[in-house]
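hiii so um. not sure if this is the right channel but i have a protein structure encoded as tokens and i wanna go backwards to a sequence. like what aa goes where. can anyone help
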């Protein structure tokens, strides 16, 4: 069995040291199980949420707040 390759979401490079890897979450896929999102400890601040998903969530929350 081979070890999973972890790729930094911010810089796109492999994370060789397991102690340097930070798990950020899981991204769903339309036709499969999806994948885990990782980053180097030094790059955590560079990773941002998906702006499209943020806009959709904001619209849903605003619409709910404005309903009587």
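sure thing!! here u go:
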């Amino acid at each position: 069995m081979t070890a999973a390759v972890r790729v930094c979401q911010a810089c796109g490079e492999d994370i060789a040291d397991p102690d340097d890897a930070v798990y950020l979450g899981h991204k769903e896929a339309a036709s499969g199980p999806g994948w885990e999102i990782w980053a180097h400890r030094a790059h955590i601040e560079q990773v941002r949420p998906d702006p499209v998903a943020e806009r959709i969530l904001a619209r849903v929350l605003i619409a709910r707040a404005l309903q009587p």
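oh and Strands lie at 21-29, 32-40.
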